[in-house]
Structures are given as structure tokens and as C-alpha cells.
Amino acid sequence: MTTRRPQKTAEGRALTREDLDEVAPEHPVFIEHRCGHTAYVNSLALEKAGIAEDTPDSQGGHRGRDASGRLNGKLEENAAFTMDNLLPSDFSREQAREGVKLITEMMARSGVTSAHDALGSPDDLRSYQNSREADELALRVYALIDVQYLYAMIEAGVRTGLGDEWVKVGPVKLLCDGSILERTARLSEPFVGSLDDYGIIVTEESELYEQARKAHAAGWQVAVHTNGDVGIEITLRVLERVQQELPREDPCFRLEHCTVINDDLIARIRALGAIPNPFSTYVYYHGEKMIYYGAERLEHMFAVRSFLDAGIKVTQTSDYPPGPFEPMMALQSSVTHGHERHHVGRESKSARFGSDPRRHTPRRKCVVRRKRQRLSRSRQARRPRGARPRSDRSRPVDAHRYPRRANDGGRALGPRSLKS
What we know:
Oligomer: single chain
Number of strands: 10
């Protein structure tokens, strides 16, 4: 089996274990995708994890192989998660508190005043509390708790709502299928360019039901990571069953991402009163990856307008760090359904957030161009004779308004998020 899709390497191909063996032959290497659903490892890492060439894939995971059938170092979903126990995690409480201070200040500078931590832990809650006590927490936090901590927190008497206006325990976070960016979301039709690649169901329906029922019975809000139409179908089946068996008034079930939808799924989401949370920045920031879904399927993805028309309480999420958290970029992505370099899909009812996107793109470009021309003529009139013109592109970015991020190559996001 070959590596399924290229990654962002200089040659436009995927990393391999041979690449990593060459640069680090004496050390185990684990490189995780920014979404956290796939990783690349070298031979020594496979050895330390006890993975041999004949080791079968675990349920809900996949290990990539090259054309000869040899492991190529790519790990998807549960195959990558099983490496977690081998990774060092020795951050001090002080380092964790400083991390909270850094990220909340970055978000606050962009206008974000409240955030949902999409996969929190008891240690994360402690870090938020420590940061708050040090007067360094710059925004409010609603922490979704990883399901692996659910049973211990139930035994301790903890449930959704514990806390105050600054730090509060949110829903338990379950995982149904895979990722949109890494193309592991479980679909009813294969990805473009493949005959048998439908994505991955990470948690089997029976286990997902047991987790959801346990949390629901203990008074927790339930949130399920679900992307593909098959994943959403399974998730709705589980939540419908749980609510039928243990009725609760307005349980506020959350469908994290809820990306590939159809009319039947929309009707069931409305009947259940569930809350879909689609990505807000993915189309603009990651539009080049949407080619693997095809134009027809894209008409049923990131469908905020369809949710609104159905009377569903829909939100918008950044999914940071996979997607940027800058609010204006998110609004532009939702309204125009456009990538930073090209348009993604047709401007259809299912794709649009509100009014005709053509009112927000070409016309605005013309207005901005005319303004720039007028400014240019004005500057020329004021420029002293013999002075050299200064290019707008050479001006420094306001680092306070648009903070630089290490995982973005040190580039500031302001000009990208406001580009017309």
C-alpha cells in the first residue's frame, strides 16, 4: 500500500522513515501533523513502539506502507495515538502557566475574549487556574475534557459547569472519525483520486455509545469530533439513542466540525437540537487540500448557511492550531468560501454564510484598487523632488496587532487575513 497523499516537503512528496533515519539514525523521531491525527516516525521509533513489519493495524488506525509493502513511517489516527506513551511530557507547572499566558494574550490581541479548549485535561485546568491566580489569564476558558479522563472525573464528582466565568469545565470530548485536513474523515464516497480510501472510523459505534451514555447519565454535556457524512451518521445514531434512553431537557449535544452533510443529516440535527461547530477558517487557509473532496462534495461542506436556514444553532470555530484564530479571517472564509489564492467550490446556498459573495469580493477589490490609486497619486504629489518611492510591500507589519507564530514560519497573519 502506498502513502496516500503528498505533504508539504520541498519535493512535494510525503516524509518517509528513510528521510528521518538519514537525519537521526541514533534517535527515535516522531513528527506530528499540526492537526494531531497523523504522524511520521523513523525506524528506531517503530522499534521502540514494538511495531514490526507484520504487526497488524490497530482498530481505528492505519500504518502507511510503500509500494513494496514495507512500513513507510506514516501513522494515522489510533496508530499515531498509541505512540503518546513514548513521548516525553515533563513540563513544569511554571512552564504550563507561562504557556497559558502566551496563548491567551495572543488571542486577546486579535479580539478573542472567550475560547473553548477542544481537548483539555486535569493538568490543563490546573494551568488555567494557576494563570488566573497570577492575574495572567487574558480570556475566559471553557475546557472540553478528553474522554480518557472521564471516569476519574465522574468519580471525583466533577461534571460540566464546574467553575466560574473565567475557567469552567465544559463537555466531555469523544472521537468518532478522522480529520478533514489529513483526509481521514469517514466518507460515504472515496476521496478524489482513490477507489477504496473512505477515511477512518476511530471509535467503533458500540464504544462511542458506552462513552456517551456514561457521560450523559452523569450530567455531562457530550461533544463528539465528527467530520465525514458517515461519521456524522454514526454520531447522530448514538446521541439519538442516548437521549431516547435517558431523556434530558436540552442536553446541548455538540458536533465538533460536522463538515460533510446532507439534507437528511440536517433534519436529524435539528430534531435532536444538536449544535454543529464547523471550521471557520479552513476554506481560506487550507483551500488547496479541498481538491481531495471534489466540487460536488464541497457543496455540502462547511455549510453554515444551510444550518441557519434550517433553524439550527450553528457556531464557528477556528480549530487552532490547525486553523488560525483571527476572527476577521474566519468571517471572510465563511462569507466568500474562497481560498487565499483561488475560489473553492461554487458560491452555492450550502456554501455561503449570508448574502451573495460576489458583493464581497470583486467589487471590494475594485474599490480597494481605486483607493490605492488615489493614495498613490496623493503621495506622489507630496513627495520631495528626487525622493525614491517607498513600496507598500516593504513596510513592517504591526507586530502588536498581528503576532507572529513559530509554526507559520515567523510570518505575521495580518496581511493574509485582510487581503482583498
